[in-house]
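Minutes, project check-in

Agenda point 3 was the complex the collaborators sent over. CS summarized: four entities, 1348 residues total, and the question is how they sit relative to each other. Sequences were read into the notes so everyone works from the same version.
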Amino acid sequence: MIFLRCDYSEGAHPQILEALVKTNMEQTVGYGEDPHCINAAQMIRKRIGREDADVHFFVGGTQTNFTSITAFLRPHEAVIAPARAHICVHETGAVEARGHKIVTVPTTDAKLDPDQIDETIRYHEDEHFVKPKMVFISDTTELGTLYKKSELQEIKKRCEKYGLYLYLDGARLASALTSPENDMTIEDIAHLTDAFYIGGTKNGALFGEALILLNPELKKEFRWIMKQSGSMLAKGRLLGVQFEEFFKDNLYFELGQHANDMSKLLRDGIAAKGYRFLTDSPSNQIFPIFPNKLVSELEEKISFEKECPVGDNEYCIRFVTSWATPKEDIEKVLAML
Amino acid sequence: MIFLRCDYSEGAHPQILEALVKTNMEQTVGYGEDPHCINAAQMIRKRIGREDADVHFFVGGTQTNFTSITAFLRPHEAVIAPARAHICVHETGAVEARGHKIVTVPTTDAKLDPDQIDETIRYHEDEHFVKPKMVFISDTTELGTLYKKSELQEIKKRCEKYGLYLYLDGARLASALTSPENDMTIEDIAHLTDAFYIGGTKNGALFGEALILLNPELKKEFRWIMKQSGSMLAKGRLLGVQFEEFFKDNLYFELGQHANDMSKLLRDGIAAKGYRFLTDSPSNQIFPIFPNKLVSELEEKISFEKECPVGDNEYCIRFVTSWATPKEDIEKVLAML
Amino acid sequence: MIFLRCDYSEGAHPQILEALVKTNMEQTVGYGEDPHCINAAQMIRKRIGREDADVHFFVGGTQTNFTSITAFLRPHEAVIAPARAHICVHETGAVEARGHKIVTVPTTDAKLDPDQIDETIRYHEDEHFVKPKMVFISDTTELGTLYKKSELQEIKKRCEKYGLYLYLDGARLASALTSPENDMTIEDIAHLTDAFYIGGTKNGALFGEALILLNPELKKEFRWIMKQSGSMLAKGRLLGVQFEEFFKDNLYFELGQHANDMSKLLRDGIAAKGYRFLTDSPSNQIFPIFPNKLVSELEEKISFEKECPVGDNEYCIRFVTSWATPKEDIEKVLAML
Amino acid sequence: MIFLRCDYSEGAHPQILEALVKTNMEQTVGYGEDPHCINAAQMIRKRIGREDADVHFFVGGTQTNFTSITAFLRPHEAVIAPARAHICVHETGAVEARGHKIVTVPTTDAKLDPDQIDETIRYHEDEHFVKPKMVFISDTTELGTLYKKSELQEIKKRCEKYGLYLYLDGARLASALTSPENDMTIEDIAHLTDAFYIGGTKNGALFGEALILLNPELKKEFRWIMKQSGSMLAKGRLLGVQFEEFFKDNLYFELGQHANDMSKLLRDGIAAKGYRFLTDSPSNQIFPIFPNKLVSELEEKISFEKECPVGDNEYCIRFVTSWATPKEDIEKVLAML
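CS then shared the predicted structure for the full assembly.
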């Protein structure tokens, strides 16, 4: 069985695992205050060009998202997000469970159109409505699309106009930043957002996300909210050790690049055979549309997710490549089509 | 200034106020356990043909809605509601503040289409999604439309199919049940829903809504949740006294009828002059579309809400009639058009 | 049956009721933005000597308390309160239901000792603990005791030292400020607290509490939280009308004085007969200790609450007098002893 | 520096780490539905003698506690717990943050006295109080003490009498069950509680706790609450792999035994030198009382936590031994005294 189901099917990249083994018997304090976390945070600050940033390490993305929103917003404040955003769909209402409404806006490509911010603000006129206070976007998005620098700048501009925080979910940031269509650096993101996270789980860590707090308003007593949210790992250094590996050289980006290379190979191969895609996604998630019969055949040999039916005779499916996807798997898949 | 802004501009209907004055110096226990509340609850049970119902009195509708949802649902369970529903828009996220997501479905007339229930259920496939457990509808709706008996039956059928509670917000139930297009009785509603409330605030009470719990699963320890939600009035008998007046004869329905009569007069008059409406609403809220210039002129003499622009030159506004609207006001308004 | 069970057994003081009747058919906007609320708020600001205060009207005390705490605190912040405080006992966990821990400190007289603030702060050392951010006290307390000005000043001093908000629950503020042992004015309270409320329900209003926000940090977008908490009365002017009556002359304090006069008569009479009290409470709640047999006899003729057994043969009970208690009732009770 | 600060200073026991390395490149589905989790759950069911149990794996203890409480209780229901319980102190109000009050009872040894259950139930009489619905205890407790079988049976009896769930926090269950004073088996615990968890983090896992749901009422849709609580690890099999190692032979208990052996050596040595202890704790946490001067000297060479001052001249400190504590460290410490 070939796995194109998700980018977290395996354990960790061997270099990361080796670092965990090597440091295993070190004795440190817990909860992220150990030398590895301190060092990894400093590496990240340097790499993103923001020495003033606060860096907090989390085990997973859902945790990172709801802990941040819990910390950032007052009870009546709401989040604006594309209807396809992870927090709107696949987190079992974790944001609402902490008391906040997400005002969703419709999209075809899972990207927020800056004008939708204006429309949303206009609609929420007084104290009978929630008050939008934060914009949530993902890069890459849940449909594998990505933001251009000019788009992010425009979104930022609207956020500043209305006093909204801009938060970027970077679960797949490695794939975004190494996409052939990307024109941003991680420094750009660190200068255009109020907070974002650098995803590790989907890019070769055993687990781990690094949340970057840039706006000083968002930093105060953040660790209290982390602990209360169950987001503080006892042996916190496990997160520091992994992010040290990601950022001591260039591993973080190399793994994203590999996933993108494999996905490009697959995408080009599928397109060459004449199939269409749900959306144009130049990253490690692609959404080809196949005849139902073909989908059934593929399911016997490949593990993947089914997105949605397209008319009566076709189905859109999702293929996800990762840091661990071997080129041979792609070739085998193309041979099946 | 003529008030067509809402149906809660005045105090109480004189008969209700008189009852409050008359009982003012009685000494009773508090929190809704007094003889007036007990008596009013019994009157209601009889009137709706459900001797088994639990009846709880609330001061306002927002309270009634979120207290009920808090009591009925587990943390991961969600509400399905039309996007125009009061809980989705005008309650400042009170439902989300208690931890529950509202899954909204689009509508043009603020009414839920039964098929939308099926679609919503299909989409929420596993534990990564919230679990829809309750359907929320209003009668009349927030656009003044209402449900036919066959529609409510069909919604109930889907709810039973999927194990969903059906809750009906009756803030304007008096107007619904006395509408010329209505084909339901209050007994029908008490047999087709799991819970609903009989709205008093918008029908001539000083304040007050009577929540009716029909499904035994929803009754357990409800008063604990009421108290925790701040929904238990110390001098609870004020609510009982008012609902006794509503239901000892036929006052509740007479007041709804008056509001509808005034609105029919107004609606017919506006239509006769050739104006269009946003939607066909045979109840005490109507949504005529006027040229912008006319709207500006009307604003100087009438207090009303502006709904939304219609193209560049027209505006949809809302006129609401009430138990207290005098016929002369309607005639004056028609004369202005 | 004589009612000494609570101070909210009747409706409203006749002067207040009359004002409600007189204004009944006025047409105003809702939700507390009407002329009566605006006027009453201005009267209160003047009376408390704080023109800068924000005034918000609520229907009940539980609502006022949890809405305030919800608005004032971030999720990890906690309240310090005496273990007997109303929010710790009789509000069904309404504060915890909004996510905040109450750190309770033991007391014998329901009053907070300033040193308990220091001890509590010392104990909560880092992000593994909640962070105390607010002190909650009641005047009079739940045991009918009251704070001296010097005590309130000392509590305020500690609050300032640790950056804590000081909130005073004034459900029975009228009784506190007219107690023979009181040495504070309402102006003092308005200068020593960050927020407090002036209780109406237990002092002759049909219902109603006036929350006074003094610290500017606490004012921002408070109405959003009110609405979300279900604390915004549709026909809000009912609250304004009542507080106008309280403060246009001196009615608020006269009613408190009457309750205290009746309670003094009762207390002195009981003491003269040689009975003891649980605590010395110079206000409208008293806690005499009677032989069990006497308690049983009294229960047949008087409605009151039983507090706690004292040894095997005696019981402490609570008598509450109110604005409406007639002198004859007190005389009859004393005759029974 | 010798580490006696906590039992999670190192990474994982080598055998566990090796299993993680060995399975690293396996491709599995995520979120705990992989073969390792399924297998580990089955091993545990067999080991505890409850084939009917549901087993869920968590990353940490705070998560396990609040996710369980969130899933088990309705909004007005509360937890009874000893005031020293982890959830009352060191979880930053995580339980209250999900809306539930913890009713704390005082203790000297961190153990719940069964009579305290009766007293608590008596006090919470009606809907103005929260409703206790669950008892929370830890074994070993936060002071290193443990429950005898007869004590647990008695607590269970009271829980059954009042319809309370009994939950046992087993963060240090390995130490409890291998203590010289223990008279319970893990099977006993699985027959006397409604839910408990088997702690891994403090007993040699990289991280991980196994929650065991025994009462069928507690099982329904638990995974929804897990996901919403951020408690579902993407690469869930990391937890399964570790618990397979714990339970395929006897590793779980051997590691607890080692920690206890080291602590016994230390405790006996300290006692032999004439020092007292705060409480008698026959497990891997001990609380000796030393002169202040000695404490200062020890701090230079040993990492440990300071518990509380004892009079003016002494201090109670905490020493924690673990699966990884070498005998030589104990000998060195004893030599310093």
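Noted in discussion: The radius of gyration of chain B is 20 Å.
Follow-up: revisit at the next meeting once the mutant set is ready.
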